[in-house]
Amino acid sequence: MTDIRTDEPTAEEISQQKQVRLEKRERLIAKAESAGGGAYPVSVPVTHTIPEVRAQWGELEPDTTTGEIVGVAGRVVHLRNTGKLCFASLQSGDGTRVQAMVSLASVGEESLAEWKDLVDLGDHVFVSGEVISSRRGELSIMVAAWQIASKAVLPLPNLHNELSEETRVRSRYLDLIVREQARQNVVMRAQTVASLRKTFTDRGFIEIETPMLQVMHGGAAARPFETHSNAFDTELYLRIAPELYLKRAVVGGIDHVYEINRNFRNEGADSTHSPEFAMLEAYQAYGDYNSIADLTQALIQNAATDIAGSHVVTWADGTEYDLGGQWDRLSMFESLSDAAGRRISPETPIGELKALADEAGIDVPHPIHGKYVEELWEHFVKADLERPTFVMDFPVDTSPLVRAHRSIPGVVEKWDLYVRGFELATGYSELVDPVVQRERFVEQAKLAAGGDLEAMHLDEEFLRALEFGMPPTGGMGMGIDRLLMALTGLGIRETILFPLVK
After folding, report:
1. In terms of C-beta density within 10 A (0-12 exposed, 13-18 middle, 19 or more buried), how is residue 321 classed?
2. Among 252, 291, 337, 428, which is most exposed with the fewest C-beta within 10 angstroms?
C-alpha cells in the first residue's frame, strides 16, 4: 500500500481526509490518557537532528549496520506500508531527509498496526532506533520505537507537482515544506543581511533603529499609509523612509550609521514593488556620493561572495550574472542626449522636453523639468543597461534632499544604481545647508498643494536639527528585497517570505 498520488485531491476529498485525520487525532488523544504520547506531546526525546545523522553516517556502504542508536523527528513526506515492513521518509526543516524502516520484528505487531492506522503524510513523527544502510544503500533508521510528534489534520499537496505561484505566495508554509528553492531563499536572505551587517561593522558603522510611526512623513517621494494614535489622539504615518531620523543621528555625532528595517508606501504593487518592504539606509560623515557608491558596490559584491562564493551569481533559471569588476558610472543627461539624438541639459526648455515626451508617447504626471528628464531617460536609456551601472547627476527639482553638484549647474550629486534592469539603490551627497533645505521643502510644499501626493512636507524639526550643523555626508538607500532579486533572479514576491496579497 502507498500513500502517494499523482494528482491533486479535490476540495471534497480534502474535507473527507480531514475528517479521517480528526478521528485519528481523537484516537491518539484517547490512547494518551492511558499510555502517554497523544496527538500533540509537549516534547519528544530527540538526540540527533536529521542533518546531523546524514552528516555523520551519510556515506555508509549498502546493507551496513552501525550499532548506533539515535532519536530523530521529522515530517513524513513519503509513506509506503507493505506487509511486515513499512517505509517513511522523514524531512527536517531544511529539507534533509532520512528513511525510517518500521518492521514487525523490531516494533511488534501492535505498534506496527498502529503505525499503519495512525500515521499519515504530513505528520511529524519521532522515531528511535539503529542507524543502518538499507540493501539499496539508503541511509535509514531501523525503528525500535516511534511516537506521533504532531498530527497533521490536512493533507500535504502532491509533492510531485509544482505549486502554483498563487499557492506559493498565499501559503508560504506549504511552499517551504515542498520546495527546495523556497527554503534556499530564506537562507540566502539571512546570509545576505548578515553579510551586509559584517561589511558595515568592518567599516565602523553603527546600526540603529528609527521610528516607523511618524507625525510627518519624509525622506522619499512616496505616498504614505495613514493611521491614528488613540493614545496621542493624532494622525500618524507609517514611515516611507528612515532618512530624516538617520540624519539627525549624524548631526548628533554618529558619523557612520545605518538601519535595516521596514518601509511602507501606499502605492502600486508589481514584480519590483511591494507596499511593505525591507530597506537599508546608511550615512557616512565626511563622505560624498562617490564614496557611498564605492561602499554600495562593496556591500553587494561582498554579499554575492558570501552566498555564491564569487561575484558571479547563478539565478533560479540557471542564468549567470556577473556582479564583479568596477561598475560603470553613467551621466543621466549625457546618456539621454546620446540615446535621443539631441542635446538635453538642465537648460533645455521644458517645451522641448514635453514635445519629445509626446513624440515618444510618454505621459509625465506633475510635469516639471526634472520629471520630464527622468521619464525620458527611462524610455530611451534604461532598457539598454545590462551590467550594474551607477546613473549619475540628477535634476535638482526632483531631488529635494540632495546637494547641488559641485561643478555642473542645475543638477545634484545623486546616483541611482541599476542592476538586472531595475533600480536597486540610490545615493547622494547629502544636502546639509539648512537654508537651502528649507527652500527645497517650500518648493515641495507647493507641489503638494498642487496635488502631488508624493511631494514632501516641510519638516521643521528636521530643519532645526540641521541648524545645529551636519557634516558633509554621503548617504545611500537600497531595498533588501530587490537585492535578493539581483542575487537570485527571482521576482519580489519570491524574495519576501510573506508578501502582502489581496
Report:
1. buried
2. 252
- The span from the CA of 352 to the CA of 25, in Å, is 74
The C-alpha cell at 265 is 508606501
User: In the 8-state DSSP scheme, what is residue 262?
Assistant: E
pLDDT band at 34 (very low <50, low <70, confident <90, very high): low
pLDDT at position 2, please? 43
**Fold equal for 11-150 and 178-327+387-495:** no
* CA torsion through residues 211, 216, 222, 226, sign: positive
Query: Residue 35 above 90 pLDDT?
Result: no
Sign of CA dihedral 482, 486, 491, 494: negative
Annotation-wise, does 138 bind a ligand? no
| CA-based torsion, 309, 310, 315, 318: positive or negative | negative
| Radius of gyration of the chain from its Cα atoms, rounded to whole angstroms | 29
Output phi, psi for 350, to 5 deg.
Answer: -65, -25
416 marked ligand binding residue: yes
Q: Cβ neighbours of residue 337 under 8 Å, at least 6 residues apart? A: 343, 344, 345
What is the CATH topology of the domain spanning 178-327+387-495?
BirA Bifunctional Protein; domain 2 (3.30.930)
Collapsing DSSP to helix, strand or coil, 393 comes out as strand
Rounded to an integer, the average pLDDT of 59-85 is 95
Which option is the CATH number for 11-150: 3.40.50.1010, 2.40.50.140, 3.40.50.11750, 1.10.390.10?
2.40.50.140
Q: Which amino acid is at 5?
A: R
430 in Cβ contact with 403 (< 8 Å):
yes
Q: What is the pLDDT of residue 4?
A: 45
pLDDT digits (tens, 9 = 90+) for 412-466: 999 999 998 899 999 999 999 999 999 888 887 787 777 776 677 788 999 999 9
- For the entire predicted model, the pTM comes to 0.89
> What pLDDT, on a 0 to 100 scale, did the predictor assign at position 308?
94
SS3 assignment for 131-186: EEECCCCCEEEEEEEEEEEECCCCCCCCCCCCCCHHHHHHCHHHHHHHCHHHHHHH
Cα distances from 170 to residues 178, 455, 493, 501, in angstroms, run 14, 34, 10, 7
The Cβ-side half-sphere exposure at 396, using a 13 Å CA radius, reads 19
Burial grade of 379 (CB within 10 A; 0-12, 13-18, 19 or more): middle
pLDDT at 398: 87
Domain residue spans in the chain?
11-150, 178-327+387-495
